[in-house]
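Anyone have tokens for Protein kinase domain-containing protein? Sequence:
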Amino acid sequence: MQYEIKIMGYDNSTENVLYRIRIIDLFTLDQRDIRVRYSFLLDLHNAMQEYNINYQLPQFPKKEYLKTLFEENKVIKQRKQKIGEYFQQLCQSPPPNHKLLLDFLREGVDTIRQQELLKEVNSKTNLLKYLKYEKVLKKAQFGKTSLCSANGKKIILHKFYVMQRQSDILFQSYIKAHLNILDFNLFTQVNSIFYIRPKANFVDNMLGQVKQPKISKKQNIFANLQPQYISGEAVKIYSIEEYAGQNLDELIRERKNKNIPFNLDELLNIIQKILQAIIQLHKRNIFPNRILPTSIIINNDNVKLASIQEPNAKYKEKYLLEGYAKKNEQEFDIVYYPPEKISSQFQQQQLNGRLIDSWHFGVCILKAALLCTTKELDGIHICYQVDKFVNQVSDVIAEIIMLSLKQQAHQRADVRELYFLANQTAIIKFQSTVLNQQEKSQITYLTINNITEEQLKYIQQIIQKSPFLSVKINLYQQQIDQQELDKLLQLLGNFAEVKYITMILNKTQNLHFGKFCIGLQKLRQLKHLSLDLKGINIEKEEIDQALKIFNQMDSIERFILDCSSMEFINTLKSELQLDSKIILYFESQLI
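Reply: yep, here.
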């Protein structure tokens, strides 16, 4: 089984003892911490035993009732250890039918977070006892967003209109997404999600009935989105979200008016933080996401993603894509959707939600880099227009934007690849700053996006003018001519002094890894080496050959590797003898 469970501790400050459990995915190295009751774990054990009648599960620790606090704490500690041993045995030898166990490992939720989110509200009057309205931030067809205050803190109150017949599914989906979001350094915190339901009376309580939320008085909300014979009565779902700062859209307008563009450091910070957040969502299978500049919240260096999986998002999307938003302020929001969402030729194909998020991200960053409106990005679904826009952007981030805005989904980079590229970009930017202070007259920065005879001639001319180079080679998803690559490395090794090299060989075809490593050995003055080898199959013989060559490259001070071979990573971790800083990634996850 690809999971490991560790019992990190317990919390007995509440009425029930809660065990802190860390669930580690051994394949992705992702981990999350949740708190659960003993009774929940016992119920899980009993349910698994029922599903596996002919299989004996490990014995689950029994609960003992003791009178003194000292005895109770002692027994809780012992039980914590035994629960840890129980799950260790269970993961090593799972039962034949282990679906319940897998569901818990993948989707088990934090008990306290669940209680916080699911607070009942019986009337709007009760809600206003705790909240003070300040102003309406946005009012639209399918909801309203208001700025409020509570106990001296600013908060956002969202009201979402949803179809009554879909309300429970959308409500549960919204809850589930936010139960899986626990890193509030990357996301704004949603504190509560609720309907306003009438209070249950005596008969309701006696019969175990739950009052349904009231139908909204607002008429014809969904008139354009459904056949006339289907009832489209609306109910309201509410949520309370922390106020964390200005959104990116507000900042773009503000800076445009003052003519103060984002500098490179600010853009790189936004890029890295948002990509980190989207990666976390994708790990939890939360996609696609409606990522707009209004959902990127910025407060100085803090950048957070907001408005995750809002229940009315699909209505907004349908309203826009079917042309009902024409002649209003949302008309040009079509630029945030990739070609496969808006073209009829893709309607029969299964869409890749992760790559849709890449497009959303790219448009947001392009808009920030250019300080432009969505109307000014009209035409972004045409290749040459994307080139035209990106040519106005700094070279340092242009590549990230270009790879996220590929018209064909299969050519578009996913967020893990973009994040790795953003990290390399930050390193190169740092290097160029330092080098411009120390070796300004010597270093030339060279970017190579394809290898041809013409390109090799051009590189030779560059070397003649300045033999000291910092090189970035991006062959992402390209068909490689091994002979041409060998010539390039030979040229750089024989006639130039390459100080820094970044090579993106992600998903390239026809790469002979052994020959490639021999070529790298020719770069004798290399200080920093960064390799992206994701999607490249590396044989055992090639791993041994690479290790031998890397151990002979004594000049290297920093070595960064991202690849898809855990065997290669483990070999380098245990046997690489370079006296340098080594940073290893497995599929863009830091090891």
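The CA atoms of residues 223 and 229 lie 11 Å apart.
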